[in-house]
Write a structure and sequence with these properties.
Blueprint (H helix, E strand, L loop, with lengths): L1 H15 L19 E2 L6 E7 L7 E9 L4 E5 L4 E9 L2 E5 L2 E5 L3 E5 L5 E4 L6 E9 L3
Antiparallel strand pairs: 1-2, 2-3, 3-10, 4-9, 5-8, 5-10, 6-7, 6-9
């Protein structure tokens, strides 16, 4: 019963525009999303939600796919934390010159303001879900 009341309360907020300006698709399938290039020129992403579609500090929620040998060059997000959950494949994330070996079922946090790069370099493609959260300057 409690869950039902919470669900009904959420539906009412959706209808009244308190959570979103318009009711979003609450369920999305990866197969229904068109792949697009990442901002860094390597790999591809399937974006579930963009910043302007969310009423919170999230910047994006996406599924990423890097083929063997692809690299996301070193870069910094001064005002955003990034979070990754690796589903398939292996690779290397370099954060401030320290290497992190990526495997399935691994979670990685990248704090705002640190240099980082992603390398699909371990013999297989790399698949992951990732999202960003903006922080105040």
């Amino acid at each position: 019963m409690v869950l039902n009341r919470l669900t009904n309360g959420f539906r009412n907020k959706l209808r009244k525009g308190k959570v979103y300006q318009q009711k979003p698709d609450l369920l999305k399938k990866l197969s229904d999303i068109v792949a697009e290039p990442t901002a860094h020129g390597s790999g591809e992403k399937f974006v579930f939600r963009k910043n302007e579609d969310m009423p919170n500090a999230s910047t994006q929620v996406a599924f990423g796919h890097f083929r063997l040998g692809e690299v996301c060059e070193e870069h910094v997000h001064p005002t955003m934390f990034e979070y990754f959950f690796f589903i398939e494949g292996e690779g290397t994330y370099i954060i401030e010159e320290e290497e992190y070996h990526l495997k399935p079922n691994s979670f990685l946090e990248i704090p705002a303001g640190v240099k980082h790069s992603l390398h699909a370099d371990k013999g297989v493609n790399l698949k992951f879900v990732y999202w960003g959260v903006a922080v105040e300057k």
